[in-house]
Amino acid sequence: MPLNRHHLSKGRDLVRTAGDHASDMFAPLTVIGRGLRHHTAWAKERWRSTPKDRRGPTLFLTAAMLTGIYLLPHGLLFALIALMASAAWTGRAPKAPPAAPEPDVADVKLTALYAALTPYLAGPEGFGPLYHHEGGYRDVFSGWEFDAEGRLARLEIAYPPYFTDTEPAARARIEQVVQGKAGRAREYRFDWDEESNKLRIAALAPLPTDIAAQRFVAAPGEIVLGFTDENGSARTIPVHQGGALAQQPPVVWRTGPRSAEPHLLALGVSGYGTSSLIRSVALQALPFADLVVIDGAGTGEHACLVNRPGVHTVETSLHGALAALQWAAGETERRLTVLNAARHAGTAPPEDVSRPLWLLLDHPTELSELAHAEGRPDPQDLLELPLRHGRAARVTVVVADDVEARDRISPSVRATTRARVVLGPAGPEEGHAALGVPLDIVPAAQAPAGRGYARIGTGAPVRLQVPATVDPLDEDAPAALRDAVIALLPHRDTRTEAPAPAEPAAGPHAGVDLAKGPGALRFRPLA
After folding, report:
1. How far is 456 from 420, CA to CA, in rounded Å?
2. First-to-last C-alpha distance (Å) of the chain
3. Which residue, of 97, 254, 276, 520, is most buried by count of CB atoms within 10 Å of its CB?
């Protein structure tokens, strides 16, 4: 050992020995000092907690006690000895160790997520796998972010190149694992970057559920299916939300002769609002169109539309549905003939063919099964002409049914309905079958009624929250929501009757009489 290092080592040993002796020598003083600090802190706390009106008497008693101790023989000595003994007794306990630091949220949750992904992404040892049982999450995770509640908000994952990221089943396994570890109560968007083998995950904020049925700012022929997040729409519209006016991005479906998606198919999990969507569409279409409503389930969800101006009929039986759809097919053919004649003559088409006609079918597969059992024509087959030529004849078809009945929907309906909606927490297969493309969003385990996804034409699927459009005849529904729907129902037909005198504008939740007036209007017969 060189001389310098020998002297340095010997000096360090001497300093360490001197420090140990000094600590042993001054240990009693250290204990007494710690006790005196405890006494001082206790005295300050008692003085701080003493009310102001009692501090004067407390000072007087303390001064009297100190004076008495001073006047006693050897009083100060005994008081000092008692104080030192009390300080030594109080300071005998060693200093409490500092509390252990809280574990890092990222270390806890991302380590668990890495361990859960390892069985699915691990590969042969010879290829230097990114995921193995002795690895760490920092080698493959980057750009993570947690919210104020400690929940995962954003994460980027690197996966090995041999992972089959082009197979929907393989993707679904990874998405299920990530959602299980990050929390199933929220929706997550998964962005698979196949070129760089990256998976970007983002937790999505919940959509508003307190938007009731109302008149939306939209052009004739535009239907607001619901509302989405900022990335799902290029515009916002004013809506009454929670008693105030707010701007929300809508999901707009454009109909009419120049629409590329003239018909709509809505599938949903039972109880998640497909009938509410039909009611919402009907209330928005009534000011500029005539309606034919078919309630295949026969539950009376659309009884509020019976005998309303602009509503030709509301059918719940198989016989009535067949008659209404046969009339609709004939009406479509008549409209085509009249419109073609008007174009050849260069004149404006008559009003009875220029006004749009909407066919709203709620759960038609129920009637299809009944028709097959009785050997009668399938009601869905009668939609062939309105679906094929509806855009030219200004006839729009809206079909809503259960997601489990998608295989019983006729091929013509599935082929011609290019506007799609799926409601409820449908799985990857149901979402793909309903929308026509894989869904890059994993639904939450529990979703409110009216939550789902929409795809208009060839666009990307967007999140959707249908406005709360309850059945006004349902006494269990909130009164405010029922009044909002009743206020939108037509009570006069401005096409054939003189306009009613101006009345004071009613509030958004003002009560409206649901009773229907006498049948003064005469509609075209169905047969």
Report:
1. 6
2. 115
3. 276
Q: Give the Cα separation of 398 and 265 in Å (integer).
A: 6
Q: Of residues 33 and 465, which shows the higher confidence score?
A: 465
CA dist 288 to 158, 303, 315, 339, 389, Å? 53, 20, 21, 18, 20
SS (H, E, C) 290-351: EEEEEECCCCCCCHHHCCCCCEEEEECCHHHHHHHHHHHHHHHHHHHHHHHHHHHHCCCCCH
Q: What are the C-alpha distances in Å from 72 to residues 66, 76, 79, 83, 168?
A: 10, 8, 10, 16, 94
Higher-pLDDT residue of 210 and 522 is: 210
Distance separating alpha carbons of residues 424 and 269, to the nearest angstrom: 5
DSSP 8-class letter at 149: T
Residue with tokens 């904020």: 205
Residue type, 413: V
CB 197 within 8 A of CB 161: yes
Nearest in space to 178 (alpha carbons), one of 146, 155, 212, 196: 155
How far is 326 from 329, CA to CA, in rounded Å?
Answer: 5
pLDDT band at 8 (very low <50, low <70, confident <90, very high): low
Q: Tokens representing 87?
A: 């300080």
d(CA 253, CA 257): 13
Structure tokens at 336: 């085509």
For the chain, the farthest-separated pair of C-alpha atoms sits apart, in whole angstroms, at: 132
This prediction's pTM: 0.73
- Within 8 A by CB and 6+ apart from 474, the residues are 482
- Torsional class of 258: left (φ above 0), alpha (ψ -120 to 50), beta (otherwise): alpha
d(CA 400, CA 102): 52
User: Cβ–Cβ contacts within 10 Å for residue 322, how many?
Assistant: 19
Within 10 A of 284 (CB to CB), how many other CB atoms are there? 23
Distance CA 293, CA 104 (A): 58
Q: How far is residue 457's CA from residue 417's CA, in Å, rounded to a whole number? A: 9
As a whole number of angstroms, the distance between CA 304 and CA 213 comes to 14
Q: What are phi and psi of 239, to 5 degrees?
A: -140, 155
Q: List 452's β-bridge partners, or say none.
A: 423, 464
Q: What counts of helices (H) and strands (E) characterise the chain?
A: 14, 17
What 3-state class would DSSP assign to 17?
helix
How does pLDDT run across 173-182, given as a tens digit for each residue? 999 999 988 8
Instruction: Give bridge partners of residue 212 from the DSSP assignment.
Output: 468
- The number of CA neighbours under 13 Å toward the Cβ of 406 is 23
Confidence at residue 126, expressed as pLDDT on a 0 to 100 scale: 52
Single out the residue of 403, 391, 400 nearest to residue 430, CA to CA.
403
Residues 6+ apart with CB under 8 A from 47: 55
Residue 149 token pair: 């509640």
Please state at what angle helix 384-393 crosses helix 318-345, rounded to 10 degrees: 30
